[in-house]
Specification:
This protein has 6 helices and 16 strands. With 350 residues, it is mainly β. It has one domain. It has a 16-stranded antiparallel β-sheet that branches.
Amino acid sequence: MKWFFIISLSFLLVSCRSSYLKYDKIEQLNKNEEFEKRVKISNIAEAPAPEVKEGAEVKPAEPAPPSKKKTSKRIAVEKGKKKKTDGKKPVEEKKPTAREPDIEDREGFGIDRRPNTDPFRVGEEVIHNVHYFKVSAGELALKVEPFVEVNGKKAYAFATEIRSSSVFSSFYSVDDRVVTLMDYEQLVPRVFTMDVKESGQLRQARSFFDFEKLKATYWEKKVTKKSGEEEKKLEWDIVNYSQNVFSMVFYMRIFKWEIGKTYSFHVAHDGENLVFKGTALRKEKLDTDIGVLPAIVVKPEITVKGLFRPVGDIYIWLSDDDRKHVLRIESSIKIGTIVSEVIRINPGKP
């Protein structure tokens, strides 16, 4: 399993076409009625500040009227009463679980799945220069966009974008965007949408993770010059609290990453249920275009169906602070190494 930007650049590095693929049925490619029936996405409007006219007197809000307290006699009577059960045993409330009980780390979390310190800020942008043999191949952007609602539930909107540089666009053009919508309370991905626009292909993919039924559905429409139109649909059972391959790079940021410690979580991808494992190897000072930054070096691995299978020689540098920004990604391919390193950070709204 390769990271999204590595997949895109693999096409870039072996191709010799420059313009985007032409297709006269683009509206049909972008339409997915089944997905649209199952998923309702809406923006969350920010509450406007109250308008105050110039010269108008601003009055403080009136206090709420005092509640009418019951007399001690009435309270005593009610305390003595037993709740009616209609002969049935009262239903015990389920206690929330801090993390996935079998494999996820619990440090830094309360009684629910929310981290004590939220690393994400709306408006955050981490921009990387992606280079191969020291030649700039393009830019990778990791963004936190405004909150949305997915089927009535508040969700983060995480965007991953990659665009080829002007030099590489003369060989192969890439303009790809993935948006993952992650449930705010449960920190699980409900939806991802992928729109790929390249010299060799046009692709639209949609995925819905139904955690109430523990089912994942993936739809894909693709057009290539070689094979023409293709469609794909997958549906499979997933493990609770699973991430997808695009949410996992954001989800990594909620953990502490103590040196020598391995962190794990479930990942559902392409009809399979995987286990992500990442080990914090060391701390180091990373010399970047925006200065020397303290970082934690993480080596990720994947377990597939009980068998250990490495992702490849991939290393990830996370900022050594509460935000855990992704500062650098390094991946060995057949020839050489692709490196993606930060050149700009917008921390977002406090």
